[in-house]
Amino acid sequence: MKVTFLELYNEEVTDLLAQEDSSRSSSEDKQKKHVSLMEDGKGCVVLRGLEEEVVYSANDIYALLERGSSKRRTADTLLNKSLLTLGRVINALVEHSSHIPYMDSELTRLLRDSLGRKTETCIIATISPSAHSLEETLSTLDYAYRAKNIKNKPEANQKLSKPVLLIYLYLELERMKEGLHKLLSNVYHQMS
């Protein structure tokens, strides 16, 4: 399985798994590799220059999440164009509008297939029990409530070519052999 990890901050997409570039001047620039969003001609968004890392276990994924999370930005943003546009897209989809403003922000471009198109989607609404965060919590719950009314028509991914499928099956077989070897080794040591 391949994993990517990106950040969308102030309409700028950054690769959080990219290796640091020592030729850049500031320390923040060294940690950031900007990624371009492009159309592939078939109506899909492609992230040009995004690093993909192959993982074989949950621990591999956790390590990548930890590495990428250390590069995330954490400053507050007062007016978030992406979230405002996401709200407009959700409203347009729920109301069956003839125009859906996907192209108005990088976030909605990225989420286009997940919003009323061809992928199965799960939304997780993160809220706070604090009275101080009441307005933000209500807004989040409103987003989630409206988004759950969006109907998607999931489609299976494209068929893999024979060589790609063979490589995938070979790697999966090797992973299973390694797991079986570890299991048998543990059983042997426990019996002796």
Automatic annotation (TrEMBL):
<dbReference type="GO" id="GO:0005524">
    <property type="term" value="F:ATP binding"/>
</dbReference>
<feature type="domain" description="Kinesin motor">
    <location>
        <begin position="1"/>
        <end position="150"/>
    </location>
</feature>
<dbReference type="GO" id="GO:0008017">
    <property type="term" value="F:microtubule binding"/>
</dbReference>
<keyword id="KW-0505">Motor protein</keyword>
<comment type="similarity">
    <text>Belongs to the TRAFAC class myosin-kinesin ATPase superfamily. Kinesin family.</text>
</comment>
<dbReference type="InterPro" id="IPR027417">
    <property type="entry name" value="P-loop_NTPase"/>
</dbReference>
<keyword id="KW-0206">Cytoskeleton</keyword>
<dbReference type="Pfam" id="PF00225">
    <property type="entry name" value="Kinesin"/>
</dbReference>
<dbReference type="GO" id="GO:0005856">
    <property type="term" value="C:cytoskeleton"/>
</dbReference>
<dbReference type="InterPro" id="IPR036961">
    <property type="entry name" value="Kinesin_motor_dom_sf"/>
</dbReference>
<protein>
    <recommendedName>
        <fullName>Kinesin motor domain-containing protein</fullName>
    </recommendedName>
</protein>
<dbReference type="InterPro" id="IPR001752">
    <property type="entry name" value="Kinesin_motor_dom"/>
</dbReference>
<dbReference type="GO" id="GO:0007018">
    <property type="term" value="P:microtubule-based movement"/>
</dbReference>
<dbReference type="GO" id="GO:0003777">
    <property type="term" value="F:microtubule motor activity"/>
</dbReference>
<keyword id="KW-0963">Cytoplasm</keyword>
<dbReference type="InterPro" id="IPR047149">
    <property type="entry name" value="KIF11-like"/>
</dbReference>
